[in-house]
């Protein structure tokens, strides 16, 4: 079966090891890097899609051979990790929030395999590297846009879970909004789900009923509510402006390519080790960016945002990282 055929058939991907996919443990030295992705959600999901797109791009360039499993439950994750490691892949990429202990145990058992995992904790010697979505910088910039746009001085924020990966983006957004609008107040709610658009939409409607005229759409469903009510929204991780014309003012985007490419280079050179790859999600190396609809944002606000963006990239201004759970203003 061709590599393209393998990529296109998810059922085969999920059972690649069982079907006898044999990958040489010396592939990296020979110039062909074998990479496996293990994801707990569909590859179309906004957070997961960033990783998958970056890996798929590397595969299309011919830098790696790439297989993946999606919708892998937490109870199956360790088994799938072991199957890929046993098959001889050089690098396993995924996210281990909620199953850190099991994942790190697997890595210890396969010291010749590189592991690059989304994690709230640090790297583990010798081969367990970590990354996270450190797009707090563009989140700050999108907050500047939201603060300037709010006429009611109330912004609604709907998040998935109050965990560091979400909290740091929301806190940075709030700080950015306060820069352009010191009087702004926030309504904050977490729906305790990564994917429940109806619940997120319901929460957004409640906030708009309470006076919010700009919505921070950390989860799907919020922008739908904003569009229905004729309010503005701020996107997160991916650019959905095309789906909500006239609604999305700006979005903080995450690009996993710098992270993935750095890991591939390390494997290729034989120098992969336990490291924190989070820095590759910052704006300077291209891991984060701001999408801005200049047809909806006044020119003076655009100028302020672009000046701050330049200061962030140059190191002149540092956006504070705050992983504490944000709360509504009284």
Class of secondary structure makeup: alpha/beta
What amount of the residues lies in strands?
A: 15-25%
CATH superfamily of the largest domain: Response regulator
> How many runs of DSSP E, i.e. beta strands?
11
Helix content: 40-55%
CATH architecture tag of the largest domain:
3-Layer(aba) Sandwich
Determine the N-to-C terminus distance.
61 Å
Along the chain, the helix and strand elements come as HHHEHEHEHEEHEHEHEHEEHEH
Low-confidence stretches: 1-30
Give the integer mean of the pLDDT values.
Answer: 91
How many DSSP helices?
Answer: 12
Major sheet characteristics: 6 strands, mixed
Number of domains: 2
| Strand order, largest beta sheet | 7-6-8-9-10-11
**CATH-defined fold name of the largest domain:** Rossmann fold
The first-level CATH class name of the largest domain: Alpha Beta
Shape: globular
| Radius of gyration using CA atoms only | 21 Å
Descriptive report:
- By secondary structure, the chain is an alpha/beta fold.
- It has two domains: 129 residues, Response regulator (Rossmann fold); 148 residues, Rossmann fold (3-Layer(aba) Sandwich).
- It contains twelve helices and eleven strands.
- The chain has a six-stranded mixed beta sheet, sandwiched between helices.
- Helix 7 crosses helix 8, helix 7 packs antiparallel against helix 12 and helix 9 crosses helix 10.
- It is globular, with a radius of gyration of 21 Å.
